[in-house]
Design a protein that fits this description.
mainly beta, about 0% helix, 2 domains, binds zinc ion
Length: about 110
């Protein structure tokens, strides 16, 4: 099987299932299929020490989002608003789209 198939994509709303942001909902800002990880807006904030620069000679602490493993997040269905698993359905032309296992609505338009 080809690597890099995530159940979520950029722009999806997701629920965090574990970690310090457990139970929070956010939007996927980027998917990293090769790492099986997803970056979610405002989630999993880590503090990173910034190296001193000419502008900030003393350095500092920068806050940034760290990617979460795809298995720790669940897609929120845009139709029924529930966290759900997805199934892949083929539509005309052999194209595969994701659909919600709870309400059956297509997630991809
Ligand atoms: Zn649904």
């Amino acid at each position: 099987m080809a690597s890099g198939k995530l159940h979520v994509r950029k722009g999806d709303r997701v629920l965090v299932l574990s970690g310090k942001d457990k139970g929070k909902k956010g939007k996927v800002v980027s998917a990293l299929p090769e790492k099986n990880k997803v970056l979610i807006e405002g989630m999993n904030i880590i503090k990173k020490h910034a190296k001193p620069t000419q502008k900030v000679p003393q350095g500092g602490i920068r806050e940034m989002e760290a990617p979460l493993h795809a298995s720790n997040i669940m897609l929120i269905c845009p139709s029924c608003q529930l966290p759900t698993r997805i199934s892949h359905k083929s539509i005309t032309g052999g194209k595969k789209v994701r659909s919600c296992k709870k309400c059956g609505e297509f997630i991809d338009k």
